[in-house]
């Protein structure tokens, strides 16, 4: 749409009504903003709003009244000054919600990040020697202690961990993998693609539903470097299925000079069956089954920051550490600080009480029910009718597919649930819930206690 005056003669008078930048900056409201934020952002906002007004006039609109301008500029400033990455309240009941940032960090992890980020640190400094140290030393001993592995290395995420292991140890050689494990993890991360990128050659073994030990054994050639097991984290096969146990695979691999690499995905250190969930393989089990390298995420069931953790045989981990790609995939001090603090929670035996992910998994349903009832009573005092209804939470994050935890949901019947949900997302602290039929559902399990007050304020305002 042209905003040339000559092409829209009927509106030239509207263009003339547009105030000058200077006149707007002199209004008391905007002068205050200039004092607070400095002149450049306010001037940029004024120009942007003026440009929008010109476009609107070009499209047949009219100029806003002079008194309306400060508010328009302020609204624009608010929109551009709000970070796009900001906190939300997760009332979906999905604990490790990949789109909402996976694992919330523990108070101890946050404090560690703050301490290390605010100043200088021992990131690569050895205090005893007074000389250069290695960033790779930081979480290493803790990871070995907790998992029983000989050595450990931390990289950017689990995708990077798998890629680094295959690049460093299997490039140009064959990697055997069951056809049932040629999976896509999510966000387009596909095991066959990572294998190809690493320079390893994929050898498919067995069938979609059944792979026997003998299938692996028959596939071994002089070119074979490893067997890769990939945990089927985000889907489940039932029925006529079989897959050799990990210790059988490691025996078969080692007897033929091959490595066994185990991509565990979520990397649980705690037994999930204690909470009525299906067993999620633990890192300790993989170490005990003699897998040579085990990779897992830091921000799934471990409950820490985004990271990829590799544990296993010392000589292999050392080769990964020395590989040129290790530098490109390394983590920064913030991640290491959060990870170390998270691992200390396990070390002290406090993971269940200190790590939000495990607190949420372990939360008894009666406790959730009483929180939901508290919300219901609070909203009733604002004239909003809600009920408490049984429902299900999920672990999420590609862990324990199909497994749910019984929960209690706050349910609010609404004539336009989609519009209400959109309004909840537009708040300065957005609230993300679920919609089922005409009902808005909010699961207390994933709402952090310190967010409860904000949640109730938002619900009372939006659903009034
Ligand atoms: C989640 C997952 C990955 C990817 O891990 P990121 O930390 O997201 O990179 C790889 N493999 C498996 C089996 C997974 O479950």
Report what the structure shows.
The chain is of the alpha/beta class and 464 residues long. The protein has helices at 12-16, 21-25, 28-37, 39-58, 69-81, 107-117, 140-147, 158-170, 191-197, 213-219, 246-255, 283-288, 314-322, 324-328, 333-347, 351-354, 356-362, 365-380, 417-425, 452-463, and strands spanning 89-90, 94-96, 125-126, 131-132, 151-155, 174-178, 184-186, 189-190, 201-205, 224-230, 259-265, 293-297, 308-312, 387-396, 399-413, 431-432, 434-436, 439-442. α4 (39-58) packs across α5, α6 (107-117) packs antiparallel against α15 and α7 (140-147) packs parallel to α15 (333-347). Helix content is 41%, strand content 19%. The protein contains 20 helices and 18 strands. The chain has 3 domains: 12-81, no CATH class; 89-97 and 358-463, Alpha-Beta Complex (Aspartate Aminotransferase, domain 1), CATH 3.90.1150.180; 105-350, Aspartate Aminotransferase, domain 2. The structure holds pyridoxal-5'-phosphate. Pyridoxal-5'-phosphate (PLP) binds at residues 157-159, 185, 189, 230-231, 233, 263, 265-266, 297, 308, 398. Pyridoxal-5'-phosphate (PLP) is lined by residues 157-159, 185, 189, 230-231, 233, 263, 265-266, 297, 308, 398.
Outline of the structure:
The chain has 464 residues and is α/β, with parallel strands linked by helices. 41% of the residues lie in helices and 19% in strands.
Bound small molecules, deduplicated? pyridoxal-5'-phosphate
- Estimate the helix proportion, in percent: 40-55%
Percent range for β-strand residues: 15-25%
* Total tally of structural domains: 3
- Total number of helices: 20
- Total strands: 18
CATH superfamily of the largest domain: Type I PLP-dependent aspartate aminotransferase-like (Major domain)
Radius of gyration: 28 Å
In whole angstroms, how far apart are the ends?
41 Å
What order do the strands of the largest sheet run in, or round the barrel if closed? 5-13-12-11-10-6-9
Envelope shape: globular
CATH third-tier fold name of the largest domain: Aspartate Aminotransferase, domain 2
Q: What summary fits the major beta sheet?
A: 7 strands, mixed
* The level-1 CATH class of the largest domain: Alpha Beta
